[in-house]
Design a protein that fits this description.
- This is o-succinylbenzoate synthase.
- The protein is α/β, with parallel strands linked by helices.
- It has two domains: 3-137, Enolase-like, domain 1, CATH 3.30.390.10; 149-384, TIM Barrel.
- It is 35% helix and 19% strand.
- The protein has helices at 59-73, 82-89, 94-97, 116-134, 139-142, 161-173, 188-202, 218-228, 245-254, 268-274, 294-297, 300-312, 326-338; strands at residues 3-21, 24-38, 43-48, 149-151, 154-156, 178-182, 207-211, 235-237, 258-261, 289-292, 316-319, 369-371.
- A hairpin with a 4-residue loop joins strand 2 (24-38) and strand 3.
- The radius of gyration is 20 Å and the shape is globular.
- The two termini are 26 Å apart.
- Bound molecules: 2-succinylbenzoate and magnesium ion.
- Magnesium ion is lined by residues 211, 213, 237-238, 262, 291.
Length: 386
């Protein structure tokens, strides 16, 4: 394929209501839409929505980098294969990557210079274009046996028990079977009242997951899970700080539910330790699940590799957005469809938290499920989005 045209379009997403996590408050998300167009006028779309609190590059570095990569790519030929896209982004010299096309050295070997959000955007745009050229939905490039449905969780953004209960009832009435609630950063009594309010509001059959965003110390996490476990938890994301995998492992050993590593995956050392058999962590899986954030891990293909390696060690994997726009969530939905297991719902229902979500795109969940169509690529066009 020849990349005939490229463009970079700034994107600004305002949240309906600021989202409070133990990292701080998110009120607005800023990033870029990437467009690559082939000679026949097909348009591939990608999105960069950096989240520096999760270890990505800054908005400014992301923009400068994408501009440079796109101008390098313009007019170039790439092979029509996932391999050629990998080679284009590969940090390795041609003899290692065996490339047949252009190479822009996106994926850095050294984490210090990594640009995961920019890598994500370019990879997604090229995958979207390739899938369209092959006439297949994007997930088929990732796995032949990709699922057509992806279950998603509702993220409850309210703060008080009363408001949470109302939000939870509404989400269940909309058909969501899994609810997610941010905890930590407040007294345990307050979190217990919030979790209890949600459980009382929705009854025992709805899955309830918590996300502490690393905000508990190890003793805090043990105390919290001893108490909150009584309300029936599906899992808890990142109970303890990201770098201390041994603490995470110890928390998992006595937790009443699955512990999912999320922020830990943004640290290259912690990720390496998670994905290798470490005798210090008992020689088995460190935790029950890993959370894949394509924006943080630098694209769908790196996420797929992490999922495969996690599965080999006995860890589940699921995908979440990082409060992204439609294009990134679409890519993440295709990744979720291609994972080894779809047992855990994906965190891709965040459109309901955004102030101006575009209408009429096919990635709105219906009754807690995103259904993937057989439209080639992502099935989105930039005209309908900006
Ligand atoms: O999982 C979801 O439903 C939404 C994703 C989410 O919670 C999130 C959004 C922005 C930044 C971090 C996180 C997180 O999972 O920790
Ligand atoms: Mg999380």
């Amino acid at each position: 394929m020849r990349i005939a045209q490229v463009s970079l379009i700034p994107l600004r997403l305002e949240l309906r209501q600021p989202l409070k996590t133990s990292h701080g408050v998110h009120a607005v998300r800023e990033g870029f839409l990437v467009r690559v167009v082939d000679e026949e006028g097909r348009e591939g779309l990608g999105e960069a929505m950096p989240l520096p609190a999760f270890g990505t590059e800054s908005l400014e570095d992301c923009g400068v980098t994408l501009n440079a990569w796109l101008s390098e790519l313009k007019g170039q030929f790439l092979g029509d294969s996932v391999r050629a896209i990998e080679d284009t982004l590969s940090p390795f010299p041609p003899a290692v990557a065996r490339g047949d096309g252009v190479r822009i050295r996106a994926r850095q070997v050294t984490p210090a210079g990594a640009m995961p959000a920019a890598e994500h955007a370019l990879e997604l745009a090229l995958l979207d274009l390739l899938a369209q050229r092959q006439g297949v939905p994007l997930c088929w490039l990732l796995a032949e046996e990709a699922r057509t449905e992806v279950a998603v969780n509702a993220l409850l953004g309210a703060d008080t028990p009363e408001a949470l209960a109302e939000e939870a009832r509404q989400a269940v009435a909309e058909g969501f079977g899994t609810l997610k609630l941010k905890v930590a950063g407040r007294p345990l009594d307050a979190d217990e009242a919030r979790v209890k309010a949600v459980r009382d509001a929705v009854g025992p059959d709805v899955k309830l997951r918590l996300d502490a965003n690393g905000g508990w110390s190890e003793p805090d996490a043990k105390r919290a899970l001893d108490r909150l476990g009584w309300y029936g938890l599906e899992l808890v994301e990142q109970p303890t700080p990201p770098e201390d995998l041994a603490a995470l492992w110890r928390v998992q050993r006595r937790a009443p539910c699955t512990v999912a590593a999320d922020e830990s995956l943004a640290s290259p050392d912690a990720l390496r330790a998670l994905l290798t058999v470490d005798p210090l962590l008992g020689g088995g899986p460190a935790v029950g699940a890993v959370v894949l954030k394509p924006m943080v891990l630098g694209g769908l293909l790196p996420c797929l590799v992490v999922a495969m390696r996690a599965a080999r060690l006995g860890m589940q994997a699921y995908v979440t957005s990082s409060m992204d726009g439609v294009v990134a969530r679409a890519g993440a939905a295709h990744l979720a469809a291609a994972l080894p297991s779809g047992a855990l719902a994906s965190g891709l229902a965040v459109g309901r938290l955004l102030a101006k979500e575009p209408e009429g795109h096919p990635y709105h969940p219906q009754r807690g499920i995103i259904r993937l169509s057989s439209t080639p690529g992502l099935g989105l066009s930039s005209q309908s989005l900006v």
